[in-house]
Write a structure and sequence with these properties.
The structure holds 2 protein chains of 2 kinds. Chain A is an alpha+beta fold. Chain B has one domain. The chains are: A alpha+beta, B mainly alpha.
């Protein structure tokens, strides 16, 4: 079919015309995308921030306010009404099966997991995505750094992996361990000052 | 061909996945649950319809030698617009589809409809063709998704249907399960069409 159309059109289609055709197409396309981006981008940024604040609230429901810790990127303190710290919320990005798993972990000041949430991930639907559901999700509450390993990786570990999604389970567990370790170091440093 | 016919043939007779066997990749990749299958189906419906309209409008302006790059640019633009809109107004949906959204650009069915239908027909038939093909695609995605989610996870749309006695075989959630389900569905479709043909032949004889 393509041969037919080409033969039919050789007279009228010089290289210049073809180039012009493509240039115009790309210009129009670029202009449309730029216009829409200009309009939607501020909304997208705002929505993303709202989502993050909301998921922090969900992580520590008893917190009155959240406050970013100065000088520590990705570390937020959840405070109660008197201004004392209930938990630290740490943003970690362990590498999972389908790229980085962006997650928020709430850690109590004495270094135990209280809750976590997966903000965005590209894990296999139906397998890796089970990391955000019970029963897997329920086993982390109150765990300390040493306990945060898979049972199949270490005798000290207490985390039961999801069948068929060992890599995701390992990544999520590792992310939580990182978060707990970070809070431990931070609390230690802060108390020395 | 009347307008209803143009719309409806995409659903059964020329179903993009079961009959034309185009865009099988997403049919395997995002059908492990009904929800993702449905969102992907609706996104593709939107893109294919929009693109059919655009291609139909510009069909006389585009030089036939460069029509494919022009159509691809048009598809890419529409997909980018869809992504920007989803990001701004439905961030949860945007996150759940993730990387697959960008891949919509290269779905064979969209370019196939632009090339074989919209570039030769007016705006209204092209619009209906896009809607019909999109509906057929969405339907096929939902059927595959429902079977896989029910057998592989014991649930439908995230609601647990089968009790705890059911021990779901992982196979259905993994890619091979998709191939098997798809194979049986294509077979079933063939049987249905054969029977229909036979019935029509008998009618002619009588």
């Amino acid at each position: 079919m393509s041969e037919l159309t080409i033969n039919h059109d050789t007279k009228s289609s010089g290289i210049f015309k073809i180039a012009l055709n493509l240039t115009v197409t790309c210009l129009v396309s670029g202009a449309i995308i730029a216009g829409v981006y200009y309009l939607t981008h501020p909304i997208a940024v705002q929505k993303e921030q709202e989502l993050e604040i909301q998921s922090m609230k969900e992580l520590v429901p008893e917190a009155a306010t959240t406050e970013e810790v100065t000088g520590e990127e990705g570390l937020t303190a959840a405070l109660d009404e008197d201004g004392s710290v209930i938990a630290y919320i740490v943003e970690v990005e362990p590498k999972g099966y389908g790229g980085a798993i962006d997650m928020l972990v709430a850690v109590t000041p004495d270094g135990a997991v209280s809750n976590f949430e997966i903000v965005s991930a590209d894990e296999t639907p139906g397998l890796g995505t089970k990391a955000a559901e019970s029963p897997f999700k329920d086993q982390f509450s109150g765990k300390t750094s040493e306990e945060l390993q898979l049972t199949k990786d270490s005798s000290e570990g207490t985390v039961e992996a999801i069948t068929g999604a060992t890599i995701t389970s390992r990544a999520v567990t590792k992310g939580m361990k990182q978060a707990v370790d970070r809070v431990n170091t931070y609390v230690e440093e802060a108390s020395q000052e | 061909m009347n307008l209803w016919k143009i719309f409806s043939r995409g659903i059964l007779e020329e179903n993009p996945i079961f009959v034309l066997a185009l865009s099988l990749c997403p049919a395997l990749a995002v059908t492990s649950s009904v929800a993702t299958a449905l969102t992907m189906g609706l996104t593709v419906t939107f893109v294919i319809t929009m693109n059919n309209v655009v291609v139909s409008v510009i069909r006389k302006l585009v030089n036939p030698k460069v029509r494919v790059p022009v159509y691809i640019t048009s598809i890419a633009t529409i997909v980018t617009l869809a992504i920007l809109m989803l990001e701004a107004f439905a961030p949860e949906l945007y996150q759940s589809l993730g990387i697959y959204l960008n891949l919509v650009v290269v779905f064979a069915i969209i370019l196939a409809r632009a090339e074989s239908f919209a570039s030769k027909n007016g705006v209204l038939p092209s619009l209906l063709d896009g809607l019909g093909m999109g509906a057929g695609f969405t339907l096929a995605m939902i059927v595959v998704g429902a079977i896989r989610e029910l057998f592989g996870n014991g649930s439908l749309l995230g609601v647990q249907i089968l009790g705890t006695w059911y021990n779901p075989p992982l196979l259905f959630i993994m890619a091979p399960g998709a191939f098997i389900v798809l194979g049986y569905l294509v077979g079933a479709m063939k049987i249905y069409q054969k029977k229909k043909e036979n019935r029509e032949k008998e009618r002619e004889h009588v």
